[in-house]
Amino acid sequence: MKIVFATHNLHKKSEAAAILGSSWDVLALPDINCLEDIPETADTLQGNALQKAHYVFDHFHTDCFADDTGLEIEALNGQPGVFSARYAGEGCSYSDNVQKVLREMQGLQNRKACFKTVIALILNGQEYLFEGRVDGLILTEPRGTDGFGYDPIFLPDGFDQSFAEMSAERKNAISHRGRAMQKLMGFLQQRPSFFVQNL
Ligand code: IMP
What we know:
Layout: E1 2-5, H1 10-20, E2 25-27, H2 45-60, E3 64-73, E4 80-81, H3 94-104, E5 112-123, E6 126-138, E7 154-156, H4 168-174, H5 176-189
Parallel strand pairs: 1-2, 1-3
Antiparallel strand pairs: 3-4, 3-5, 5-6, 6-7
Helix pairs in contact: 1-5, 4-5
Bound molecules: inosinic acid.
Inosinic acid (IMP) is lined by residues 67-69, 84-85, 94, 97, 147-151, 163, 175, 177.
Protein backbone atom coordinates (compact mmCIF):
# COMPACT_ATOMS: atom_id res chain seq x y z
CA MET A 1 0.00 0.00 0.00
CA LYS A 2 1.27 3.44 -0.92
CA ILE A 3 1.27 6.49 1.30
CA VAL A 4 2.65 9.98 0.70
CA PHE A 5 4.89 11.54 3.34
CA ALA A 6 5.04 15.32 2.74
CA THR A 7 8.80 15.61 3.06
CA HIS A 8 11.80 16.19 0.80
CA ASN A 9 14.06 14.65 3.43
CA LEU A 10 15.08 11.18 2.26
CA HIS A 11 16.47 10.39 5.71
CA LYS A 12 13.00 10.88 7.17
CA LYS A 13 11.44 8.93 4.32
CA SER A 14 13.61 5.90 5.10
CA GLU A 15 12.94 6.25 8.86
CA ALA A 16 9.20 6.24 8.15
CA ALA A 17 9.52 3.28 5.77
CA ALA A 18 11.37 1.31 8.46
CA ILE A 19 8.69 2.10 11.06
CA LEU A 20 5.63 1.55 8.88
CA GLY A 21 7.07 -1.76 7.65
CA SER A 22 7.08 -3.59 4.36
CA SER A 23 3.32 -3.44 3.86
CA TRP A 24 3.66 0.30 3.19
CA ASP A 25 5.36 1.88 0.20
CA VAL A 26 6.27 5.34 1.53
CA LEU A 27 6.48 8.02 -1.17
CA ALA A 28 8.23 11.32 -0.48
CA LEU A 29 7.53 14.59 -2.31
CA PRO A 30 10.07 14.04 -5.11
CA ASP A 31 8.35 10.70 -5.84
CA ILE A 32 5.12 12.56 -6.72
CA ASN A 33 6.98 15.31 -8.58
CA CYS A 34 6.43 17.88 -5.87
CA LEU A 35 9.72 19.74 -6.11
CA GLU A 36 8.74 23.05 -4.53
CA ASP A 37 9.35 24.04 -0.92
CA ILE A 38 6.13 23.79 1.07
CA PRO A 39 5.43 26.81 3.28
CA GLU A 40 5.86 26.27 7.05
CA THR A 41 4.79 29.59 8.52
CA ALA A 42 2.71 28.55 11.53
CA ASP A 43 3.94 29.21 15.05
CA THR A 44 3.19 25.73 16.39
CA LEU A 45 4.28 22.22 15.41
CA GLN A 46 0.66 21.25 14.89
CA GLY A 47 0.03 24.27 12.66
CA ASN A 48 3.05 23.52 10.48
CA ALA A 49 2.20 19.82 10.15
CA LEU A 50 -1.36 20.67 9.10
CA GLN A 51 -0.14 23.37 6.73
CA LYS A 52 2.17 20.93 4.92
CA ALA A 53 -0.41 18.13 4.75
CA HIS A 54 -3.06 20.51 3.40
CA TYR A 55 -0.66 21.86 0.80
CA VAL A 56 -0.08 18.36 -0.61
CA PHE A 57 -3.77 17.50 -0.39
CA ASP A 58 -4.81 20.72 -2.16
CA HIS A 59 -2.16 20.62 -4.90
CA PHE A 60 -1.80 16.87 -5.50
CA HIS A 61 -5.26 15.63 -4.47
CA THR A 62 -3.93 12.71 -2.52
CA ASP A 63 -4.23 11.51 1.04
CA CYS A 64 -0.98 12.15 2.84
CA PHE A 65 0.74 12.86 6.11
CA ALA A 66 3.22 15.52 7.21
CA ASP A 67 5.24 15.99 10.36
CA ASP A 68 6.85 18.80 12.26
CA THR A 69 9.41 18.42 15.03
CA GLY A 70 10.91 20.69 17.61
CA LEU A 71 13.63 20.37 20.24
CA GLU A 72 12.49 22.10 23.44
CA ILE A 73 15.22 22.95 25.93
CA GLU A 74 14.01 23.73 29.44
CA ALA A 75 16.79 26.18 30.39
CA LEU A 76 16.23 28.09 27.12
CA ASN A 77 12.51 28.52 27.79
CA GLY A 78 11.53 25.90 25.23
CA GLN A 79 13.80 27.18 22.45
CA PRO A 80 14.53 26.34 19.67
CA GLY A 81 11.07 24.67 19.54
CA VAL A 82 9.18 25.34 16.33
CA PHE A 83 12.27 27.19 15.04
CA SER A 84 14.55 24.13 15.36
CA ALA A 85 15.37 23.94 11.64
CA ARG A 86 16.61 27.53 11.43
CA TYR A 87 17.76 28.23 14.98
CA ALA A 88 21.15 29.58 13.82
CA GLY A 89 19.55 31.60 10.99
CA GLU A 90 18.12 31.08 7.51
CA GLY A 91 20.13 28.60 5.46
CA CYS A 92 22.09 27.34 8.47
CA SER A 93 23.46 23.80 8.67
CA TYR A 94 22.70 21.14 11.28
CA SER A 95 26.15 21.78 12.70
CA ASP A 96 25.48 25.55 12.99
CA ASN A 97 22.36 24.75 15.04
CA VAL A 98 24.22 22.31 17.27
CA GLN A 99 26.99 24.85 17.89
CA LYS A 100 24.45 27.55 18.73
CA VAL A 101 22.74 25.31 21.30
CA LEU A 102 26.09 24.45 22.87
CA ARG A 103 27.02 28.15 23.03
CA GLU A 104 23.68 29.17 24.55
CA MET A 105 23.95 26.38 27.13
CA GLN A 106 27.54 26.95 28.12
CA GLY A 107 27.79 26.70 31.91
CA LEU A 108 24.11 25.84 32.40
CA GLN A 109 23.45 23.00 34.84
CA ASN A 110 19.89 22.24 33.76
CA ARG A 111 20.37 20.18 30.55
CA LYS A 112 16.78 18.85 30.34
CA ALA A 113 15.20 18.82 26.89
CA CYS A 114 12.66 16.96 24.83
CA PHE A 115 11.92 16.33 21.19
CA LYS A 116 8.28 16.61 20.14
CA THR A 117 6.78 15.53 16.83
CA VAL A 118 3.30 16.18 15.54
CA ILE A 119 2.07 14.21 12.53
CA ALA A 120 -0.95 15.49 10.60
CA LEU A 121 -2.75 12.94 8.42
CA ILE A 122 -5.35 13.87 5.83
CA LEU A 123 -7.45 10.89 4.94
CA ASN A 124 -10.53 11.29 2.78
CA GLY A 125 -10.52 15.00 3.58
CA GLN A 126 -10.47 14.44 7.36
CA GLU A 127 -7.64 15.63 9.62
CA TYR A 128 -6.05 13.43 12.26
CA LEU A 129 -3.17 14.34 14.60
CA PHE A 130 -0.61 12.09 16.29
CA GLU A 131 2.03 13.21 18.79
CA GLY A 132 5.27 11.68 19.99
CA ARG A 133 7.75 12.87 22.61
CA VAL A 134 11.07 11.76 24.03
CA ASP A 135 12.77 13.30 27.05
CA GLY A 136 16.49 13.55 27.58
CA LEU A 137 19.51 15.75 28.23
CA ILE A 138 21.63 18.07 26.09
CA LEU A 139 25.26 16.90 26.11
CA THR A 140 28.10 19.37 26.54
CA GLU A 141 29.73 18.26 23.28
CA PRO A 142 28.63 16.32 20.17
CA ARG A 143 28.87 12.52 20.27
CA GLY A 144 28.38 10.15 17.33
CA THR A 145 28.07 10.54 13.59
CA ASP A 146 24.77 8.87 12.65
CA GLY A 147 21.36 10.50 12.36
CA PHE A 148 20.91 14.19 11.65
CA GLY A 149 19.99 17.52 13.19
CA TYR A 150 20.55 17.69 16.94
CA ASP A 151 21.15 13.93 17.30
CA PRO A 152 24.83 14.29 18.37
CA ILE A 153 23.93 16.38 21.43
CA PHE A 154 20.74 14.59 22.56
CA LEU A 155 21.02 11.86 25.19
CA PRO A 156 17.62 10.16 25.63
CA ASP A 157 16.63 9.31 29.23
CA GLY A 158 17.58 5.76 30.21
CA PHE A 159 20.31 5.39 27.56
CA ASP A 160 24.05 6.01 27.54
CA GLN A 161 24.26 6.64 23.79
CA SER A 162 23.34 9.88 22.05
CA PHE A 163 20.86 9.57 19.17
CA ALA A 164 23.85 9.92 16.81
CA GLU A 165 25.57 6.91 18.42
CA MET A 166 22.53 4.63 18.13
CA SER A 167 21.53 2.38 15.28
CA ALA A 168 18.60 3.76 13.30
CA GLU A 169 16.54 0.83 14.55
CA ARG A 170 17.13 1.67 18.21
CA LYS A 171 16.53 5.39 17.67
CA ASN A 172 13.27 4.73 15.79
CA ALA A 173 12.01 2.55 18.64
CA ILE A 174 12.20 5.38 21.19
CA SER A 175 12.29 8.63 19.25
CA HIS A 176 9.66 11.37 19.16
CA ARG A 177 8.98 10.74 15.47
CA GLY A 178 9.10 6.97 15.96
CA ARG A 179 6.45 7.23 18.68
CA ALA A 180 4.22 9.52 16.62
CA MET A 181 4.71 7.21 13.64
CA GLN A 182 3.75 4.16 15.73
CA LYS A 183 0.48 5.91 16.57
CA LEU A 184 -0.06 6.70 12.88
CA MET A 185 0.68 3.08 11.98
CA GLY A 186 -1.79 1.79 14.58
CA PHE A 187 -4.44 4.09 13.14
CA LEU A 188 -3.77 3.10 9.53
CA GLN A 189 -3.77 -0.59 10.37
CA GLN A 190 -7.35 -0.25 11.55
CA ARG A 191 -8.28 1.13 8.14
CA PRO A 192 -7.23 -1.52 5.63
CA SER A 193 -9.32 0.04 2.89
CA PHE A 194 -6.99 3.07 2.80
CA PHE A 195 -5.10 3.27 -0.48
CA VAL A 196 -3.55 6.21 -2.22
CA GLN A 197 -5.85 6.56 -5.21
CA ASN A 198 -4.51 9.42 -7.24
CA LEU A 199 -0.90 8.65 -8.14
P1 IMP B 1 11.38 18.76 10.93
O1 IMP B 1 10.12 19.38 11.34
O2 IMP B 1 11.34 17.27 10.99
O3 IMP B 1 11.92 19.28 9.62
O4 IMP B 1 12.45 19.13 12.03
C1 IMP B 1 12.87 20.46 12.28
C2 IMP B 1 14.29 20.43 12.74
O5 IMP B 1 14.37 19.71 13.98
C3 IMP B 1 15.26 19.71 11.79
O6 IMP B 1 15.79 20.61 10.86
C4 IMP B 1 16.31 19.20 12.73
O7 IMP B 1 17.24 20.21 12.99
C5 IMP B 1 15.52 18.92 14.00
N1 IMP B 1 15.15 17.50 14.08
C6 IMP B 1 14.00 16.93 13.65
N2 IMP B 1 13.99 15.61 13.90
C7 IMP B 1 15.17 15.35 14.49
C8 IMP B 1 15.75 14.15 14.97
O8 IMP B 1 15.20 13.04 14.90
N3 IMP B 1 16.97 14.27 15.52
C9 IMP B 1 17.62 15.45 15.61
N4 IMP B 1 17.13 16.59 15.16
C10 IMP B 1 15.90 16.55 14.60
